[in-house]
Amino acid sequence: MEENTKPLTSLAWTSGQSTCPKGHFIIAATTEGASANFLKGFNQKSALYLCYSSTPETTIEQVITEVLLLSEKSALPVGFAFIGEYVDARVTVPKKKRLCIKLSPVNSADSAVSEVKLTVKSKQLGAPYTRIGDMSGLALWCRKVPVTVQRPTPKPRNITSGIRGLSFDNGSPSQTNNNVPIPVADPKPHVRSPQSEHP
């Protein structure tokens, strides 16, 4: 997995390219170059990999803020959910340890997971990586980055309209009907009455 600075929006299990969800990338190898198949050593041809997705911060609503590896008997913490499973029908995801994530609204998240790496159990990664736990002979690590999303700014108020709204002449027709033409009566010519010519 290449270094990523964008927050992750999804983490899931997959059997390979044929079952991998659209927009996701498979973590096919460890940092040492070994296979990242979580089913290796089970004497079967099936495969199980982690896959992830990340999107530009301007188009996302939720990001992954926490990743946990729980034992089979541990209760799922509030706000967390088990990761999705996009696998072949013959593949069973191990339940002895289960991965779960916490999704948070991007507008309220200070930091988010941007990278997940896999190593052999004996490998140690320094900062800024944090070890999540071990599963199927592999160690899981995550890296976080600050969430820098632009919050919407309030629209500036129109000062002119505000002053106009405070006018004391709001009741005047000339103020309220500025755009309404006022009809003007056509002047009629003065016609002298015949009686007025003879007293």
TrEMBL record:
Taxonomy, superkingdom: Eukaryota
Does this UniProt record's set of keywords contain Metal-binding? no
Which region ranges are annotated with the description Disordered?
A: 151-199
Q: Which locations, inside or outside the cell, does it occupy?
A: Late endosome membrane
How does the record classify its membrane topology?
Peripheral membrane protein
Q: Which residues form the MABP domain?
A: 5-146
InterPro entries attached here?
A: MABP, MVB12A, MVB12A/B
Q: Which keywords fit this entry according to its UniProt record?
A: Endosome, Membrane, Protein transport, Transport
- Polar residues bias: start-end ranges: 169-180
Q: Which GO terms describe its biological process?
A: endosome to lysosome transport via multivesicular body sorting pathway; protein transport; receptor catabolic process; regulation of epidermal growth factor receptor signaling pathway; viral budding; virus maturation
Briefly state the protein's biological role.
Answer: Component of the ESCRT-I complex, a regulator of vesicular trafficking process. Required for the sorting of endocytic ubiquitinated cargos into multivesicular bodies.
User: What does the sequence similarity comment in the record state about its family?
Assistant: Belongs to the MVB12 family.
Protein's name in the database: MABP domain-containing protein
Q: Which organism is this entry from?
A: Eleutherodactylus coqui
